[in-house]
Amino acid sequence: MIRSATASDEASIRACAELAYEGYVHVMGRKPAPMLADYAAQIAAGIVYLATDEQGNFQGFIVFYAKDGHLLLENVAVLPGAAGRGVGKSLITFCEQTGRQLGINTVQLYTNERMSDNLLIYPKLGYVQVARRTEAGFNRVYFEKRLI
Questions:
Q1: Which residues lie closer than 8 Å to 116 by C-beta, 6 or more apart?
Q2: What is the CATH number of the domain that holds 56?
Q3: Amino acid 96: pLDDT
Q4: Which of 6, 48, 57, 136 has the most crowded CB, counting CB atoms within 10 A?
């Protein structure tokens, strides 16, 4: 099940981000942006959604919002124990379905160039690399998917 996050979910969301991204700290030489995000503000803005299992246990989350005529998928993270079970894919599909419902036909996202798993996963989900640039000291790879 996927639902909007509430303030009471913040600790679970932050813990998930820490666990999901901790392996990249050594590779990047610093904490990735999702480990530094202001989740309280994002939850208050209504742009965070979380996935739960059949028993209602937290599994992962996604952050996305409309920007300049597209959806920006800012972050998706899954608890390591739930990895490989389709949770991330379900969250991304939810983002895409929301875009269609809003009449938005493009999802854009970015990932760090050192997150090699992401560079392989997103093309398999239909995303095409459209740019590379350095922002806030992070070397980012941008992807886009047209929603048909």
A1: none
A2: 3.40.630.30
A3: 97
A4: 48
